[in-house]
Amino acid sequence: SRLTFILFLIYLAGIAIVLINFNVYPMTDSFCVQDQALAIALGNTDQIDTTPQTYFGNYANNNFLVLVFVWFYKILSRFGITNFNFPSILLNALMLVLGEILCYLGVKKLFNPRFACKYLALSVANPILYLTVPWVYSLSFCMPLMGGVLYLGACVYRQKNKYKLIAQSGGFGILAVLGYFIRPVVLILCIGYAVCLLLWLTKDKKKLLKSALCVASCLVFTAATYLSVSASIYKICPDTSSTYPVTHWIMMGLHGDGTLNLDDNGYTKQFDTKEEKVQANLAEIKRTLKAYTPASFMRHLLIKFTRTWGDGDSDFASRLQQDQH
Fold this sequence. Notes:
Layout: H1 2-21, H2 28-41, H3 55-58, H4 63-78, H5 85-110, H6 113-124, H7 128-131, H8 138-141, H9 143-158, H10 162-182, H11 187-203, H12 208-236, H13 246-253, H14 262-269, H15 274-291, H16 294-310, H17 316-322
């Protein structure tokens, strides 16, 4: 519709303004990822540096993103491009735009054009989409994967052709795995679709054959993609024995407002091996959960929800205070 076209124009114009006026240089996680990828792409090293006290010695969640940037920087180098900062920001913006398009199509497929237009209006009005443009990191690169999962899931739900169903279910599995390696938040949509599938089956068991075909195809492509990506990551990062386990993030998410907690970071860091970290995290998770009452836990979830969706400036105010230079 005309309104949808206008909304996308507004969104693209906002991104263009940011691209023209904000040539931001990377810092913190974004810098570590790009710096390590550049070192590998230029041949200075062939593996991620996981020595103790380094960024990748603690965090393994961005290893696949490093690999993606290695490929990207090698392509740029072949074309004689030596300034990698702006092309990285441009790629980041492209990921956001692609994610927005796929999310819109997914909502449209699940519901109707009118509802999708309302979604787009809310999305375009969100300042975080524009402030994220120069922040080259996984939160942008996961967007097209989330959008793709949303769209393909909707296609599978509406699909009647057996061969298209197999292809779309396989694509769903591929994007889900890639999303997991980029930023596991993508799996939230997968869990949502899994719950819907179970509810769908309880309502209409005649759909069992279609569901079985969908799940089988998805599992095959999921397994193949997971093994392929894991093998590719292993080539540039064979040792993750001292990195933070998933239990660290669960533990940290149960404290305060669920954001980065330096005390939790120091707590996990004091243990040498991943096994020791897991055991310590699990002990703290159990202690924290026992301390919650149903009312206090619901209050904790509300605080996390408010923090996640209410902070539309990506905490830029505190960042500016910390880094006046």
